[in-house]
Structure to design on (522 residues):
């Protein structure tokens, strides 16, 4: 199933995408729900951010090429993680599919995309095991972990480099039925392919991360875990359109614009 | 005004603390509200977590003694921040006044408290200035930034060292009328004073932080900014009760217990 949060005729609700139609749903996917009689053409609705997570987890370094490129730029040897460790992103930065990423007036030209698989949690969970880790997963969406690399180097931590308003596009919807091993992530800038990797070529995959996180953390319905990215990005400038495509989910598309002040 | 989230007779709502009574309020402090006729004795209600912030901001190093003690332990020279920079904490870790901090079964004995002033945002705000920064502040509460120091040294980032379930007590209520310059933070373990500092002796205070954050971030009603701590903590063990008292707000009290597995 493909769950879409959308607005039509001034009303925001959940729906199910079926072909080029959206079937309106009463309730929400994490609780009670039922299909309504009403449908809309997908092209006519405003796609909304699927959810604001209670806690917004994000893996920093989880693919070998990305690690090596980061180390090469820093003039260091890649330090491959020996266990799954997590970071956080900030809810203020989330925007929906087709909403604009606003490049802050004070940012440098080092604006990069990072195309990521985002795991959406559906059930409250703690102390899961390898055998039952997937039982808390509701589905998958796509994230763009937009980054300002000059700030990333200059600052203590990742506060503004990763979390400035609009730096976290997520969507367009949540797909519940995927085959992780068959998925490919493809990134395009203005229609031209600039990145590609096998989505599940992670150093630590979804199961090891859920097992490790739930040793310490209760996962809640609506929490998201962004799984990291591979490769590197060219510098993105105002006017560029970035598309992140993941097989079986769809395409997250956002235009980058300059902040007007 | 002193805003309390509480449960009485199975119903959770907002209220106003007036002396030893709680006046029930309909609505919530960030929107429309009105006083109800119903009152309860403060001692008879269950104090709840005041709120779950949309984004949970926390300052890492904001007092000189704490910086110096951290540097001494690491065998380095204190690196005093030259500008306000922020970090994040995770919503899963929040608990209320009088709820138990559960020390994970795999933690070491290096469990420390950090008593902190927590700023509660009341209005959506961006690009504030020194002159109008305080206009977005609703009030203040108290946070205990519980930390596992062995994990803090061993891990990439602060994920489990600072954000394990129950590691972020916050409360007991939100006080809207305070005089920052007159406030003192006092910490007691099992009734014995173990820490004390002037609450507003920060390297960067509330105004510079709000000015800097709102250059990049939209603050939302219910967001919190924990302002950091001074001094050091003894090792806290199961059975200990930690109280953090801030003049004009009140006392946040939590017992530490061992995880049962």
């Amino acid at each position: 199933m493909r769950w879409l949060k959308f607005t039509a005729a001034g009303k925001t609700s959940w729906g199910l995408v079926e072909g080029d139609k959206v079937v309106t749903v009463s309730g929400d996917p994490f609780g009670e729900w039922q299909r309504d009689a009403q449908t809309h053409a997908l092209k006519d609705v405003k796609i909304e951010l699927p959810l604001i997570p209670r806690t917004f987890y994000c893996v920093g370094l989880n693919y070998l090429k990305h690690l090596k490129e980061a180390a090469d730029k820093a003039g260091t040897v890649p330090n491959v993680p020996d266990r799954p460790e997590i970071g956080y992103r900030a809810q203020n930065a989330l925007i929906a599919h087709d909403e604009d990423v606003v490049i802050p007036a004070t940012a440098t030209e080092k604006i990069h995309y990072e195309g990521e698989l985002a795991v959406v949690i559906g059930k409250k969970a703690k102390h899961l095991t390898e055998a039952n880790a997937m039982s808390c997963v509701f589905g998958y969406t796509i994230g763009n972990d937009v980054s300002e690399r000059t700030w990333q180097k200059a600052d203590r931590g990742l506060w503004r480099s990763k979390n400035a308003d609009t730096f976290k596009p997520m969507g367009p919807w949540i797909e519940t039925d995927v085959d992780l091993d068959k998925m490919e992530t493809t990134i395009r800038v203005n229609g031209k392919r600039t990145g590609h990797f096998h989505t599940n070529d992670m150093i630590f995959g979804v199961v090891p991360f859920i097992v490790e996180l739930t040793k310490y953390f209760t996962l809640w319905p609506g929490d998201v875990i962004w799984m990291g990215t591979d490769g590197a990005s060219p510098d993105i400038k105002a006017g560029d359109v970035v598309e992140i495509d993941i097989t079986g989910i769809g395409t997250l598309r956002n235009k980058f614009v300059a902040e007007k002040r």
Summary: Chain B touches chain A at residues 52, 54-55, 57, 60, 81, 85-93, 104, 106, 126-127, 155-157, 159-160, 163-165, 215-220, 223, 261 (CB under 8 Å). The mean pLDDT of chain B is 96. The radius of gyration of chain B is 18 Å. Residues 64-74 of chain B form the longest helix (11 residues).
